Structure prediction request, 334 residues.
Amino acid sequence: MPDPSHAVDPVQLGAYFALVEVSALLQHGIEQQLREDGDLTFVRFQVLMRLDQTATGSHRMTDLADAIVYSRSGLTYQVGLLEKAGLVTRAPSPDDERGVAVTITDAGRALIARVLPGHEEVVSDLLFEPLSRDDARTLAGLLTPVRDHMRAAPPRSAAPRRRSPRS
Amino acid sequence: MPDPSHAVDPVQLGAYFALVEVSALLQHGIEQQLREDGDLTFVRFQVLMRLDQTATGSHRMTDLADAIVYSRSGLTYQVGLLEKAGLVTRAPSPDDERGVAVTITDAGRALIARVLPGHEEVVSDLLFEPLSRDDARTLAGLLTPVRDHMRAAPPRSAAPRRRSPRS
DNA sequence: TATTGTTATACTCTATAACTATA
DNA sequence: TATAGTTATAGAGTATAACAATA
Prediction:
């Protein structure tokens, strides 16, 4: 008989499908708002957001790539666009000369400030309208450990260990 | 003062961030498995899955596009690839001559059968490992109404009604 | 040697709008 | 007139691997 630890029961399947659909629909709504309000894609918004949230306004490329779950070369491309648009600057990392510190500019902060209200509105209307405060707390309580678990097993390294040794 | 109905409190923000991260990490893991086990992308897998799940093995283009949250022209492209690969066929809809019925082939069903075990394993290991059965039920119970709510307000039509009339 | 980040090439996918055909 | 689906063109994004520089 098949290993039951990998079977996905109907309830799990429903949760999985709902998750996939919800994130696709949410992403759609978000991208539309960001495009209209600030000519931003979701990826570039996330980069700016991460930078905006730090006191220094800086992050290293690798940290950013990891944070937003993006390839390095892809991030180089996206940050290149942000730099061209004057929303971030790049400079060698002070502590590690190999690294690059990406820093948000005033224009970048201004852009975030401009799109944030609309962003919150979309998230609020789309995601949280049908959820009570307690629901939101419960949702966070469920998804946070999942995220931590996924982060603990980085998808990039750790070659897919399919077909675990039958114990 | 700003309309509080659109404010996103810290708990909601945490839930939102966790959701975005979880779906990105999950999608990554899934795409990797599908590529390795069946040379499939997630989009094309979803199309095949939807078809495989019906008795007839058929769906109309529009229904498919709506189900997987995809643009019509994009779906035409993806289904074109699936057809080239012999995984689906296309034929005029019997009832509505404008429509196109996409049907999964035996090869398509075989491919799904081949990748499904690995797919379930990834979903199980990544998403459900840290969740109890009750947790999964709770998660489904939260996300299902959210999905229904998002579906009720299609992102395509219904122009973004920002700045609701102050009531 | 390992890591950081960039680059180059080729490729995949997407966006937009125009277009055909049927309802 | 409205809807279903396709197409064309152009552009955006991605993957892969090779590369330079620092640790």
About this structure: Chain B touches chain A through 61 residues (CB under 8 Å). Chain B has one domain: 12-155. DSSP finds six helices and three strands in chain B. Helices of chain B lie at 10-38, 42-52, 61-67, 72-84, 106-128, 133-152.
